[in-house]
Amino acid sequence: MKATPLIINWHHDNNNPYPIYSAHFEPGGKGRLATGAGDNNVRLWKLEDGDGGQKVDYLATLAKHTQAVNVVRWAPKGQVLASAGDDGNVILWVRSETHHPAFGSEGLDDKETWRPKHMCRSLGTEIYDLAWSPDASFFIIGSMDNVARIYNAGTGTLVRQIAEHSHYVQGVAWDPMNEYIATQSSDRSVHIYSLKTKDGHYVLHGPDDKPPKLASHTKADLPPRRISSSSPAPPDTSYRSALGAIDSVPGVATGSPVPSAPGTPTSFALPMNQPSIIAHSRRSSFSSSRRSVSPAPSMPLPAVMPIEASPKPHINSSTLGMKNASLYANETLTSFFRRLTFTPDGSLLLTPAGQYQTQHQGEGGKTTYEVTNTVYIYTRGGINKPPIAHLPGHKKPSVAVRCSPVVYTLRQSAPVTKHITIDTSSAEEPIPSLPEPLSKPPSAPSAMDPPPPPNQTEGSAVKTENVENSVQGQGPKSVFALPYRMIYAVATQDSVLLYDTQQHTPICIVSNLHCATFTDLTWSSDGQTLLISSSDGFCSTLTFAPGELGTVYTGELGPPKLGVAAAAAAASSSQNTPVPTPTSLFAPPSPFPNGHRHRDSQSSLTAPSPPTIPASFVSNLPRAASPARSNSNSSVSQAAPPLIAGQVPGITAANSSMVAGVPITTPPETPRGSFTAPPPTTGSKRETAEGEAGGAEGNSQPKRRRLAPTLVSGPFTSGRLQKCSSTTMFLLDYLQHRRDCRLKQAERARLVNSLTAYHGPLTAADKAILTEPIESLVASVHAGTTAPLSILRTYGKLALKAHARTNCLTEILLPSAEEWLARSKPADGGHLSGHSKAHGGGEINLRGPLAGIPVSLKDTIVVGGYDATVGYSSLSHRPAAKDGPMVRLLKDAGAVPYVKTNVPITLLSFESTNDVWGRCTNPHNPAYSPGGSTGGESALLALGGRIGVGSDVAGSVRVPAHFAGCYALRCSTGRWPRMGIATSMPGQEGVPSVYSPMARTMDDLAYFLRAILGKMKPWEYDHTVHPIPWRQSIEDEWSGRPLPKTGGVMPRAKIRVGVLRTDGVVDPSPACLRALDAAADVLRAQGCTVVDITGTTPDLYEGLRLAALLLNSDGCQTYESFRRPGEWLDTGAAQMRRLAGLWAPFRYLYYLWVRCVRRDRVWAGLVRSWGPKSAFEQWKLVSQREAYRAKWFEWWDEQRIDLILAPPNATPAVPHDGMWDAVSSCGYTFLFNLLDYAAGVLPVTKVDKELDKLPSTFSMRKLNGVARGAYKHYDAEKMHGLPVGVQVIGRRLEEEKVISMMKRIDEGLKDKYQHLSLDDLD
């Protein structure tokens, strides 16, 4: 056997490895290996044996996940790969028939192409584990929402949900006999469910059926004796107990072991060994059920010796039993994987994260407790009963168990113990090939001599050396009564132990291979390679020579053929439990040569040796006691295997990073700009530092320097903390939330302070750049007269000043932007064709139509190396692996992303406040909001920023432009790219969100649109974009400019503009009405026909109602799923959540009170149907939406209207927290999102405290509830000086018309809108 760290770039980025959370070999001997990691990617490899060792070839990267990938699993027959992770998605991958390279920008390294077959969502919660059914028809996942879900692999649909755990489901397993499923949770339990009814039919096909739970293994009474890691105790196989076992099975010949009945749990009373002098209750917390015989094929039930407490070695023993002890580690375990497994024949269930507890009576009556890490083993016949055996002696908790797919014959002789010592502390010393023995290891010192066996006198002590020789001489006794031998590996946090079902002790122990916790195990299909993944970002292999593990078993994995007599004996027995294989020997000494003792353990006692039983008698022993007793969890004097004992190969590879010479091919690194990723163990998953003391002194050999695996944590640790109870869960999550917010704000402050090149006042040269139109700047960059770096530093300086005034920035990209420019070719270096280069390298195309122009981005837009938090702390410290399509498009156009801007949490507000980044204020008046959800963008543009990109689902670019005084266009869906973003409502398509441009000036907005849509072909970057280039002829025609060929223009008298003076819910305030009249007067003066359309349109209130119900048809659950306990929620979103959370009868009573008592028809109509919708209800709403759109389609033609003029909102900017009252006052923009119309906003005037006062006849009491909330905060005197805009609306995909009319209005205003002066920033 040979242990080899594979030092390649598995999932690296700029030489920083991401944690690898899962790995799996493809079944069938095809050699593919799948890995999933914290870089959000799945990668495929081919692992082969080369001349110099293992050779790893890169095959492909599968990049569809948006967060870390926690588990990858091939279907049992291969060909289909399932992956799942923190984004809550399960993706089923199949190989594509055609090869389309997709890795990086050029894809030259991808040797295979894989495509998603199905994508299944799990309500946005993290998925920890996945297991396939043996026929590959279904798979089960375990999630962070405490639910296990079963999906149909053929259709990708959810079949069943099992929500019976009270904490995260961290492991799932599917019985290879297709009869059971098992789940393991951090609530300290293992649940086992049956998949078949009494008639043998699957319950998964019935819509109302639920898999019955057979067992919930949580607690049990544990015997007083303990097994120390340095001294496993032998079983109690005294002559008296053996005779008792024989006498308890009448009619069974001692030479004919009774075969088991079919593998179904029963609760019949079974014969037991004679009890020890320590009494135990028969009660336990294990649930059981009586079921009929299973229709599954009969299985040979593996049997271990009954777990029984041994007699006390001394009369004054201070070791006490544990009543109702928990079997598994609690939720504070520093790993979030508990990957349990069935053996290949389905006979055993192996569960990690076990804890064996004992207590000791000290001096003065003080009781101390000791917990030993272990793995519990359950049998198929006793699957609803306590575990039959366990594997004590692990230094750290176990996280995964995996069985080799190859089954071997039983060994006829004891294996030769190999002792290996490795020291890699010196790079000059070659690493010896394993397992060449280097020296004879010394005998492990015992804490104290074992007491004499009961049948000997005090003077006749048995020497440990003689016992060890006896062990080696007699050969291995099979622990489990099986005609074959199965091999399984256990991964703890810092070591891997290899066992088989024949011997008590491990085959080998691998330690110090990695410096961080192990995460997963996988066996190759030939059983000769075990691969181990680690959160340090690397993998290692344990390889075996052909035949080293034994001879492959070729018989059937089933019950042995029985003769007539044996069959009759089987029929007369009601016993379904495993067959014990007693032994009369001492347990061998500890495998740890330094005499390791578990933490907090006292010196270990070796259990007494029972009298030696002749071999002939041992071979004729009948089936022994039932494991159903409550003390069967014992690790004491048990007939179950201690399995960590004796002299075994301890493979140690310290400083494994020194290993070299592995033939590899490594994929190229993912572009990240200048971002330096945090260490892998601190960036994506929660890992807690835990020190471990070194081994005990006393070894005769010189002490060698070793690198101990250590769990590391840091300031970037993700906030998904494990909790102890509902109270502490809230507290810990809240504390982590506060910590993450402080870290992000401190990180931003440090970066701002370090950017000294961007400090200082604005110079005359700076102001010249800031006031020059971007079209002129691009020309100067192309000509080489202006350096892009100078433009970047000017706008960067302005952005920092704007941030100091309004808190408008989130992520500051300036250092990365400088590096992107440094890697870019000069302007005269040739035009970068298409998106071939910036797609992967991150450089800027300085020959593009936006060459050198800094562009600000809404926080939700994905930039490689930076977070897209959406205002949630749970999404912080999760930097994107690479640029999204929108950023790649902008870079290829020559634009330089330089900052990201603030948003409201949930993105559903006209304010921009969150706990992560703080509150963004209006640059005109800090007491008011700059708008939302693109509020940070509008604040920056109002103070001098140039162009930016935001999103709009209910007015989120138009309302900020109205509140802060800038220009924005809401494009129709499919006109502007929308991929490569994060959102608070993934999957919401009732009212689609669109991304759209914003700018400080009208000319810049128009040029930005022409550059992207007219010259860059965005449909080549984003599949959602329609291949409709910018139609310059339409813009010219409607702008009044002569057409290039015909010289004609659109006659102004033929342009018919409709003025919308109310949305039917809230009439516009005096300030907004004055701006609307000013815009209408401009168009009249230009010769356009302006008509009032109020009262002629389809029901406007119906549009608001439909849009509101569609947008929140999930009952606000999706945006709430990202929010941590105690995290601040926008007041408007809190209002929506409060209404959605009302019990339906209460909500109806509230509706009746509003409708009948307050006589508020408008508010009552919105409240009545609020709340989560079923698929049936959602489809009805979508149908109503389409019918409503059809009415408007007909209206345009009937009224012969070309464009609509309307207010962007009923009032100017709202004060902070004003959205609690004005949450539904969004009809002027929301309506056109529902209709998917092109709509733009431009500033027209500012609030005047004298001109815009409310009339004396105004009465709040006459208003409906929505209008009352809007006007509650209208005060012309306080609002004096705030911007007021107007909205221009065209039909779907008529962006050119809208831009033309916006320019007409902007140019025709007599009193031009005055932007904030740059001088005010210094």
Automatic annotation (TrEMBL):
PROSITE patterns for this protein: WD_REPEATS_2, WD_REPEATS_REGION
Amino acid composition bias (Pro residues), ranges on this chain: 432-455
Boundaries of every Amidase domain copy: 845-1298
Segments annotated as WD repeats: 33-55, 62-93, 127-161, 162-203
UniProt xrefs under Pfam families: Amidase, Beta-prop_CAF1B_HIR1
Residues in CAF1B/HIR1 beta-propeller domain copies: 2-199, 312-549
The protein's name in its UniProt record: Uncharacterized protein
Organism: Humicola insolens
